[in-house]
Amino acid sequence: MTMKKKLSLKESAELLKILKDRFEKNSNRHEGIEWNKVQAKLESNPEKLWSLNEMEQTGGEPDVVHYDKNTDEYTFYDCSAESPKARRSLCYDRQALDTRKENKPKNNVEDVAAAIGITLLSESEYRELQKLGNFDTKTSSWIETPAEIRKLGGAIFADFRYGNVFIYHNGAESYYAARGFRGALKV
After folding, report:
1. Which of 8, 90, 107, 182 would you call most buried, defined as having the most Cβ atoms within 10 angstroms of its Cβ?
2. CB count in 10 Å sphere of residue 152
3. Paired residues of 140 in beta bridges
4. Rounded to the nearest 10 degrees, what angle do helices 46-57 and 9-25 cross at?
5. Using alpha carbons only, what angle is made at residue 21 by residues 17 and 27, rounded to the nearest 5 degrees?
6. What values do phi and psi take at 34, rounded to 5?
7. For residue 4, what is the DSSP state?
8. What whole-number distance in Å separates Cα of residue 87 and Cα of residue 71?
């Protein structure tokens, strides 16, 4: 069964209002970017609007953080204060989920991100996010793990403590109630 990846007109209008309000309240995240141009881009990309709605519904509070004039793309990140609540208690990827013998989590980060239509934040993106405010002061977020680390069974996550961004490692099959993931979406 194929999932519908388009919002109704009412859902689109409601989401656009939420996004516009957040955009206006957090102008430090996107200086020089005009909302009307962002909205026009979103309205012409219904699947991306659907993905933003999924980010919102899972607690991510997406907001515009960058505009690339070369590609004419706006980048949204999950900007919730803590790791998105409905995306916690997940191991890193399908391989980790399949190899875990007992007490398996309900899902894994990579599959959930793919279903939403977003990518995990990279380490550099996570560090850029932290320049916009203090995020993950009580939680942590899985971030994109380099292949060489993943091949050895590990995965990396990040948080913000003591005024600094910390990047840590864990077994990819681990999962915690206070660890989720943050995503990025280019529109």
Report:
1. 182
2. 10
3. 179
4. 70
5. 140
6. -100, 130
7. P
8. 30
